[in-house]
Automatic annotation (TrEMBL):
Keyword terms: Cytoplasm, Leucine-rich repeat, Muscle protein, Repeat
PROSITE patterns recorded: LRR (PS51450)
CC terms in the record's Gene Ontology section: M band
Localization annotation: Cytoplasm, Myofibril, Sarcomere, M line
Cross-referenced InterPro entries: Leu-rich_rpt, Leu-rich_rpt_typical-subtyp, LRR_dom_sf, LRR_domain-containing
Function: Component of the sarcomeric M-band which plays a role in myocyte response to biomechanical stress. May regulate expression of other M-band proteins via an SRF-dependent pathway. Important for normal contractile function in heart.
SMART domains in the record: LRR_TYP (SM00369)
Pfam families assigned to the protein according to its UniProt record, in alphabetical order: LRR_8 (PF13855)
Protein name as catalogued: Leucine-rich repeat-containing protein 39
Length: 340
């Protein structure tokens, strides 16, 4: 009996140790799979701690806002440990070679400004639409080719900059859901038309779509009731719609370096237009502003007048109207001679 008892005790102890050894091996395998070493904190965990400490050094507080600022350092991808800094309200990450916006971006619900301009980003992730408090999204000078429809979910967005992304040529219809968007920069891209989803934006006051391939403007452009600044330089516009004269809030209109042949006569009544530029267009009429008397206190008067271009526009329309009347009168005279 004693031998039986002893054998039973040994068997129990053996089973217990086998269970412990098995559990220990499983834990070791898990650590190894994560890049760790037996009995120590994994290498991955140490790297995360080091990277997180490095990122914390990039934090700054300005005007009560917590900002993550990284300039001219190589960060092709942002690490997952960044989610531990979810209280950050603004990202300023420039010239880092960053290739994509991380898919864990929805973890940053406090984010108000996302400035990732001058990087190598090729796409905007669908998760961007979950940032419902985001006010500014700045992605100029990247390699973005398309805008996801989910961006329309950024209901608080007020400023969007997508300048110089080269292959960007269209926007999703859901873009019209950005009802608070005031400032939009699409310059230096490949747009051939002004998308209707832009014309439909109710709060838009500033638009730059210069340096694209626009060939015409929509006839209902006057729907942009609050727009006060419109940059259309370096496009392929050959004419302007008459309804541009109905844009009551338009204050600044830049049309330099297009293919315009004429100026709509109805624009003469645009008393709200303060700054306009028709320079470098093949206009039919050759109109020269009359010289002005300049004093030493007003030496720059000529330059200012040329830059604003408003007086030139008025003179052009008046000259165009005179020539039209002259042509009409000549036609009447010729008609009378033929009848007699």
């Amino acid at each position: 009996m004693v031998g039986v008892v002893a054998y039973g005790s040994v068997s129990s102890i053996k089973a217990l140790w086998e269970t412990r050894i098995k559990k220990s091996k499983e834990e070791e395998q898990k650590r190894t799979a994560r890049g760790g070493a037996p009995g120590r904190l994994s290498v991955g965990a140490w790297e995360d701690r080091a990277i997180l400490a490095r990122l914390k050094q990039k934090l700054q507080t300005e005007d009560g806002r917590l900002i993550l600022r990284i300039e001219q350092e190589e960060w092709k991808a942002l690490p997952g440990c960044l989610v531990q800094l979810s209280q950050v309200q603004e990202w300023q990450i420039h010239r880092t070679g960053l290739q994509k916006i991380p898919h864990f971006i929805p973890n940053f619900q406090n984010l108000l400004v996302l400035d990732l301009s001058r990087n190598s980003i090729t796409e905007i992730p669908k998760q961007i639409g979950e940032l419902t408090r985001l006010k500014e999204l700045l992605l100029s000078y990247n390699r973005i080719q398309r805008v996801p429809e989910e961006l329309g979910g950024c209901e608080s967005l007020e400023r969007l900059e997508l300048s110089m992304n080269w292959d960007l040529s269209e926007l999703p219809d859901q873009f019209r859901n950005l009802t608070r968007l005031q400032h939009l920069d699409l310059s230096l891209n490949c747009f051939s038309v002004l998308p209707d989803c832009i014309v439909a934006l109710p709060a838009l006051v500033w638009l730059d779509i210069g340096g694209n391939c626009l060939q015409h403007l929509p006839e209902d452009i006057h729907r942009m009731e609050k727009l006060h600044t419109l940059w259309l330089q370096r496009n392929e516009l050959e004419r302007l719609p008459d309804n541009i004269s109905r844009m009551a809030s338009l204050d600044t209109l830049v049309l330099s370096s297009n293919r315009l042949r004429d100026i709509p006569p109805l624009m003469e009544g645009m008393s709200n237009l303060r700054f306009v530029n028709f320079r470098d267009n093949p206009l039919i009429l050759d109109v020269t502003l009359p010289p002005i008397e300049r004093t030493t206190e007003d030496d720059e008067g000529e330059d200012d007048r040329e830059m604003f271009g408003r007086e030139f526009m008025q003179m052009y329309i008046q000259e165009s109207r005179k020539r039209a009347f002259a042509a009409l009168n000549m036609h009447r005279v010729n008609q009378t001679d033929e009848d007699s």
